[in-house]
Structure formats: C-alpha cells, structure tokens
C-alpha cells in the first residue's frame, strides 16, 4: 500500500493483524497473523477449537453467519452486538455489551502484554511468516509467564487417584 508522507513523497506502509483464541484463564490456544486489510471475522473458524462453551468476541464478529455457526456447534453466543446505519443498538444490547466486555477483556490482555512488555506495538518485520513466528514466540512467552504465575498462586494440581 502506498501513502504520501508530510512532504508528499510516496511511502510504503505494511500492516498486519494478530488474532488470538484465549481461554477463560487467559492462556492463548490459537493465534493467526493476517494482512492488515483482512477483516477480523475471516479468522473466526480458524480460532475456534470446537470444544468452547461460549464465544466472547468484539462486534467485528457480530453477524448472522457467526450466530448460525455458533448455534450449529452448540456454542453460547456472547459476541458483542453492533449497530448499523439507521438501526442503533437497543438499550438491552448496550447492557448486554457491557456485561460481555467484562469477560471479553481477558482476551485483550495478551495484546497489552505484547505492546507494553515485548515492544510489539509496531512490527519491524515484513512478511506474514516472519510476523507469525515473532508473535508465536510472544504467545509462548505470554503462556509461560501466565503459567508461572498460576504455579506460584495455586501450586501443582494433585495427581488423580489411580485404581
């Protein structure tokens, strides 16, 4: 993509989006990297594992196709609703979105960690493969740090009795 800088010179820009599938504890289970111009909803099926009880997602995933897919697999629809031109959100949907946002915020924490701790607010690499590797390593580091915190807080689980 070409844009012009403040002097009018053409300057190339490249953008990438990171999409993550996070469980209720904040561990990253799946992650993809796409070009920045790809819509978030294109990665919905890639991020779903199939054993989810509910999907908490932002309004970018709100569509009839998403609702049908979730119903097909028996996954509870906790996707935030969005308004459309001439059809603003109802008060009930606004309340619903606020309730969902509390739980959904856990899925946003890895991005905060990437940006504040790992310096990944902007990518320094060109190419999907390189960025997938970079963010894959960041996801591993995130999960290790979260696992260490869980271990310190809760210890190792008791082994299940055999017999």
Descriptive overview:
By secondary structure, this protein is of the alpha+beta class. It is built from four helices and six strands. The chain has helices at 44-47, 64-72, 91-116, 128-154, and strands at residues 2-4, 10-12, 16-22, 28-35, 54-57, 76-79. The strands form three sheets. The chain has a two-stranded antiparallel sheet with strand order 1-2. The protein has a two-stranded antiparallel ribbon with strand order 3-4. A two-stranded parallel sheet has the order 5-6. The model has no long low-confidence stretch (mean pLDDT 86).
Annotate the secondary structure layout.
Layout (H helix, E strand, L loop, with lengths): L1 E3 L5 E3 L3 E7 L5 E8 L8 H4 L6 E4 L6 H9 L3 E4 L11 H26 L11 H27 L9
Parallel strand pairs: 5-6
Antiparallel strand pairs: 1-2, 3-4
Keywords:
163 residues; alpha+beta; two-stranded antiparallel sheet; two-stranded antiparallel ribbon; 4 helices
Could you give a short description of this structure?
With 163 residues, the chain is of the alpha+beta class. The protein has four helices and six strands; from the N terminus they run E-E-E-E-H-E-H-E-H-H.
Measured between the Cα atoms of the first and last residue, the distance is 63 Å
Which ranges are low-confidence, i.e. pLDDT below 50, for 5 or more consecutive residues? none
Spatial order of the strands forming the largest sheet: 1-2
Strand/helix succession: EEEEHEHEHH
Could you say which structural class the secondary elements and strand pairing correspond to? alpha+beta
Largest sheet: 2 strands, antiparallel
Overall radius of gyration = 19 Å
Strand segment tally: 6
**Percent of residues in beta strands:** 15-25%
Overall pLDDT level:
86
Oligomer: single chain
| Apparent shape | globular
Number of helices: 4
Proportion in helices = 40-55%
